[in-house]
């Protein structure tokens, strides 16, 4: 699951621009992830602030 | 609600499109999802004086500083200096974009465009596969705006193109990921925009210092997405600052991404035009996108007026826009994309040799092209693959 560290996020939208699944949306300072996320890690790699990470599901 | 053209995004592209279309008599609505146009800034704010003056009257209220030129550092810190009028579309003025972007939106409003803030486009309205406006949310309220044409000027994070079936998603190798601090330091040069290259300093990109007057500057870094990792821009910028400007005080922090994909296949669809960063029209070498966005915005606004007059907003009917931007700003974007693909692979040794070969030349009056020609003459081995761009 993609997690967002909202204390780090600089709400720049770079992640939205690289997301191949159109799963991210920036609402002013609030980044939303939809169920369309395919966990490809493009966004975690390019996030300039290091605010995005992929967590293993613990179900 | 109905109008002739809906513009999504009130950056330089959107505002120029809105102003142009409104001046031509169209009923224009421009949506901006932020509550404050121009804030937060995602830009180093550098722009060429002469090129900007061709588009708007320079206003001291949004000019933070004027510079004499660019100083470019190789990894070994040898440097070359280029004069302001030869340094390309990013050097000349350093703007105050919070004020600049607002002024451009104000010009659009004065020309008759309706500007809505805290108003986010949520998707296209579709009938029989043809868009006829946008669904939007303003201050929590969802509503439709019907229009035969939508201009997507929604920047690096653009969705408008994707909603219309144009895949604008950027691959990591096609985006520079950036961090920037507005800093105060006695060690800053107030007169030159400075660029620092090196694979340790900024892999596939550079560090910049763009002066804003009185020892203030935008100190930033861009790293090629494919060579970056989570949080690297902020980390590397901090270490550059600690090493080179130990007395620096940070007054603001920005992050952002710049498309460096070169021209994309299509920037139009039925009922849709893309302009500016949304159309990936930023310069792949410098990362400068303000002027291209403004120029594309004007072309999009003109296209809107023509298409509506003809009653044809189909993809075919919008082809003149496609042709016009590719024949103008698109040429340099395409060339610089090739150049960038080459430059990002140079080693520090290559960069140092290139810089040292320029030390004995008078390049103060040369532009990038002239400089490349000299470089090629002196370093044919390193630059052989680029010969078709230079000769
Ligand atoms: C760190 C950094 C440094 C840079 N330095 C320079 C420089 O020195 N010189 C230069 O020329 N260029 C520079 N650039 C590039 C420049 O900032 C952009 O090219 C320029 O802003 C593009 O203008 P635009 O109008 O296309 O998009 P933007 O200015 O990004 O505007 C897009 C607008 O659309 C809005 N929006 C997005 N989605 C929606 C939606 N769904 N609904 C409503 N509104 C929406 C956004 O909120 C935004 O306000 C830099 C970029 C970065 C990241």
Low-confidence stretches of chain A: none
- What is the CATH level 1 assignment of chain A? Alpha Beta
Question: Distance between termini of chain A?
Answer: 11 Å
Proportion in β-strands of chain B: 25-35%
Q: Work out the helicity level of chain B.
A: 25-40%
Fourth-tier CATH superfamily name of the largest domain in chain B: FAD/NAD(P)-binding domain
For the secondary structure, the number of strands of chain B is 19
The profile of the biggest β sheet of chain B is: 7 strands, mixed
Task: Report what the structure shows.
The complex is a heterodimer of chains A (59) and B (391). Chain A is an alpha+beta fold. Chain A has a single domain (2-54), classed as Alpha-Beta Plaits. Helix content of chain A is 17%, strand content 24%. Chain A has two helices and four strands. In chain A, the strands form two sheets. Chain A has a two-stranded antiparallel sheet with strand order 1-4. The longest helix of chain A has 5 residues, at 14-18. Chain A is globular. With 391 residues, chain B is of the alpha/beta class. Chain B has three domains: 5-43 and 97-169 and 262-327, 3-Layer(bba) Sandwich (FAD/NAD(P)-binding domain), CATH 3.50.50.60; 65-94 and 171-259, 2-Layer Sandwich (D-Amino Acid Oxidase, Chain A, domain 2); 345-390, no CATH class. Helix content of chain B is 31%, strand content 27%. In chain B, the strands form four sheets. Chain B has a seven-stranded mixed β-sheet with strand order 6-5-14-15-16-13-17. A six-stranded mixed β-sheet of chain B has the order 8-2-1-12-19-18. In chain B, strands 3-7-4 form a three-stranded antiparallel β-sheet. The longest helix of chain B has 21 residues, at 290-310. Chain B is globular and about 60 Å long. Chain A binds chain B through residues 8, 10-14, 16-20, 22, 25-28, 42, 44-53, and chain B through 33-35, 40, 42, 118, 120, 155-159, 162, 168-172, 175, 177-179, 225, 228-235, 253-257, 259. Bound molecules: flavin-adenine dinucleotide (FAD). The site of flavin-adenine dinucleotide has 42 residues of chain B, from helix 1, strand 3, strand 9, strand 13 and strand 17.
